[in-house]
Amino acid sequence: MQQPARTTTRIQRKNTAVILEAALEVFSAHGFRGATVDQIAQAAGLSKPNLLYYFPSKEAIHTALLDGLMETWLDPLRALDEDGDPLAEILGYVRRKLEMSRDYPRESRLFANEIIQGAPRIGPALSGELKQLVDEKAEIIHRWIADGKIAPVNPHHLIFSIWALTQHYADFDVQVHAVLGGPEIDPYPEAGAYLDTLFTRMLTP
C-alpha cells in the first residue's frame, strides 16, 4: 500500500524559513567555510539538534539557499524583452540589477562567496541554466546590433559589465561607504544616474 505524501505543518514551514534567514545572515558574514551549524542555530534561536531535524548539514542549508537565490538572480535577465526598445530594455536590466544589490545585499554576497570558492555547489547551474539564459539574451542583443538599434558591443561582455557595475555596490558595500564618507550615505540614486548615462552613451548608435 502506497504511503501518503508527508505534508509540512505551519510550524515546520516557519522554522525552515527562520533557519534559512539565519543561515543567510551567517553565510553572508562569514562565508561557507567560516560559518558553522552552531552559529546558524544560535542566530535562528533553535537548538542544534532541532536545526538538524530540518537540515542534516551545513551543506544542505547552503544548497537550499543557493537554489532559491539562483531563481531570484535570473529573473531580471529573463525580463529582457526582445520586442521592447533595445536601449530601454538594457537600461531596465541595469536598474533591476542595481535594485537587487540595494534590496538583497546578503544574497549578493552569498552568491559572490560561492563563485570565489569555485562554485562547488552551483557549478552545474552556472554552466547549465545560467549559460543557456545568457546565450539566449546575447543572441537578442546580437540581433539588435545587426539591425542598427544599438551600437556594436560584445553581448556577453556587456552582460558581465552590468553584473560587475551593479553587484559591486552590495559585495563591496563597506568599501563603497568608506570612500563616500560613511554608512549613512545612500549611493544608489547617484549610481543609478551614473549607470544610465554610461550605458546610454555606450549603446546609442
Automatic annotation (TrEMBL):
<dbReference type="GO" id="GO:0045892">
    <property type="term" value="P:negative regulation of DNA-templated transcription"/>
</dbReference>
<dbReference type="InterPro" id="IPR001647">
    <property type="entry name" value="HTH_TetR"/>
</dbReference>
<protein>
    <submittedName>
        <fullName>TetR family transcriptional regulator C-terminal domain-containing protein</fullName>
    </submittedName>
</protein>
<dbReference type="GO" id="GO:0003700">
    <property type="term" value="F:DNA-binding transcription factor activity"/>
</dbReference>
<dbReference type="InterPro" id="IPR013573">
    <property type="entry name" value="Tscrpt_reg_YcdC_C"/>
</dbReference>
<dbReference type="InterPro" id="IPR009057">
    <property type="entry name" value="Homeodomain-like_sf"/>
</dbReference>
<dbReference type="Pfam" id="PF00440">
    <property type="entry name" value="TetR_N"/>
</dbReference>
<feature type="DNA-binding region" description="H-T-H motif">
    <location>
        <begin position="36"/>
        <end position="55"/>
    </location>
</feature>
<feature type="domain" description="HTH tetR-type">
    <location>
        <begin position="13"/>
        <end position="73"/>
    </location>
</feature>
<dbReference type="InterPro" id="IPR036271">
    <property type="entry name" value="Tet_transcr_reg_TetR-rel_C_sf"/>
</dbReference>
<dbReference type="Pfam" id="PF08362">
    <property type="entry name" value="TetR_C_3"/>
</dbReference>
<keyword id="KW-0238">DNA-binding</keyword>
<dbReference type="InterPro" id="IPR050109">
    <property type="entry name" value="HTH-type_TetR-like_transc_reg"/>
</dbReference>
<dbReference type="GO" id="GO:0000976">
    <property type="term" value="F:transcription cis-regulatory region binding"/>
</dbReference>
